[in-house]
Amino acid sequence: MEEISARLRQALAAPLPGLEAQLRLAPQPRVGWDPNRVPDGLRDAAALVLLYPHDGRLHVPLTVRGGGMRTHTGQVSLPGGSVDAGESIEAAALREAVEEVGVDPADVTILGRLTSLHIPVSGFLLHPVVGVAGGRPRFQTAEWEVARLLEVPLAVLDDPDTLRTERRQRPAGGRVIEIEVPYFAFEGEKVWGATAMILAEFLAVTRAARLISESLVRE
Q1: Neighbours of 193 (CB within 10 A)
Q2: Per-residue confidence of the chain (219 residues) as pLDDT tens digits?
Q3: What's the distance, Cα to Cα, between the start and end of the chain in Å?
């Protein structure tokens, strides 16, 4: 994983794909979101995008949010949550990964960040942190927070057959509008919204780092 980590760190240090990549997986329209403006007064949140080898392929863990969560119950997300006072973004991302899926922070090397993303429904500014682990973590999920753990191969996320779209109705300004929602389909789950937008940028970064072609890795 050393060469993979070095290539990914270099790609994260270069200018990021940013908004252009995020928009590829953004619902249209994304209610309450101006892509060219970050509102004042948002609360900081952090999420961990963790890359690790398993069964000869690179994977990313996602969670199906459990019934104990106040918002977004049943949705697929990255391990993450709000940043505590005096806490760094990176420390918050690791802490949330520990709490939600039992990742050992000693096994994770932080490589950088992706582009921050405004979450209109919760008033957060989400900062995605990218890390790598040398092997598959010994996952242990927090039952009240996580209904299901998804271990998604990077190559599956990049497969065009994984990407779908559907139309949904959403309330907006006292009326109901129809939106087009792109999502990743994986094991019966739909990965959409902010999580899909973050993964879209992550895929663009991993392509720049030439990681998509790494179908076989040593653990």
Answers
A1: 22
A2: 899 999 999 999 999 999 999 999 999 999 889 998 999 999 999 999 999 999 999 999 999 987 644 554 579 999 999 999 999 999 999 999 999 999 999 999 999 999 999 999 889 999 999 999 999 999 999 988 899 999 999 999 999 999 999 999 888 778 889 999 999 999 999 999 999 999 999 999 999 998 876 544 544
A3: 8
